[in-house]
Every structure is written in C-alpha cells, then in structure tokens.
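Forum > Structural Biology > Help requests

Title: Can anyone predict the 3D structure of Crossover junction endodeoxyribonuclease RuvC domain protein?

Hi all, first post here. I have the sequence for Crossover junction endodeoxyribonuclease RuvC domain protein but no way to get a structure on my laptop. I'd be grateful if someone could post the structure tokens.
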Amino acid sequence: MAGILALDLGTHCGWACRTETQVTSGVERFENSRYSGGGMRFLRFRHWLEDMKGLTHGFRCVYFEEVRRHLGVDAAHVYGGFLATLTAFCEEQQIPYQGVPVGTIKRHVTGKGNASKTAVQSALTAQGIPFTDENEADALALLMTVGHH
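Reply #1:
Sure, ran it for you. Structure tokens for Crossover junction endodeoxyribonuclease RuvC domain protein below:
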C-alpha cells in the first residue's frame, strides 16, 4: 500500500502524501540553529524521509516541485542541498522520482501556467482542500497534478 509523496522543497518543506485510503499533508521545518553545522538541515531532512517512508509503508514514487528560478543565491544553494539529499535517498531506496515544473502545476490547478500563488491557493480552497501555508498548498497542488499516476 505504498503512497505518492509530493514535496515543495525548502527550509519550510511542504509535503502531501496520498496512500490508498487517504491524503495527508503538512509543513516540516528544517531551519538551522546558530549552533548547527550547515549540513544538519539536510541530515534532518534525510531522517524525516526515512520516517515518512516507514509511516506510509513506502513510496511508490516521489515528486518534487522543480524550481528553475530562486530569489537569491542562498535559496538556490538550500534548494540544491534538499534536491541532492532527496535524489540520493530515492536512488538508494530504488524509489522513482521526478521533478514537475512550477508552470505545469499552476496550469493543472488553475488553467494558467503563470498563475499567482494566491490563484493556486484560491483554487485549492474552492475545491475544499485545507492547507496551513503556501508551502503545504504548493505540495497539495503538486499532488493534484500527479495524482493520476
């Protein structure tokens, strides 16, 4: 009964998981404290992936929001670290994974590939899909986009 995991990678990582019986979602935070080394967020992310895999009895596949443009160099580096950690985890566990471009997700959910974050959130709300913040909303929108797989 393996599930599909959809991720909005980042320090505030939005996630959504569909199993045979339910959809669950949330936001997991991977901030570093001032006493943490630079790689600790990625180690915590790796442990979280292992925990999620156990809770869901494995992943049939993992999808992530493929971001091509970042607001700054630090954001790009952090995204790259999460992406490297995720893809290494999936390779090691022999779990298929795939990036989905942001425009593809927006087009599926709103009908417009250049829709705003607000438009995506409004589309989710209109369908009665609850979320706590933009990160969780992005993961849920991604799950909706790939849910037919």
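Residues 3-146 form a domain with the Nucleotidyltransferase; domain 5 fold (CATH 3.30.420.10). The mean pLDDT is 92.
Shout if anything looks off.
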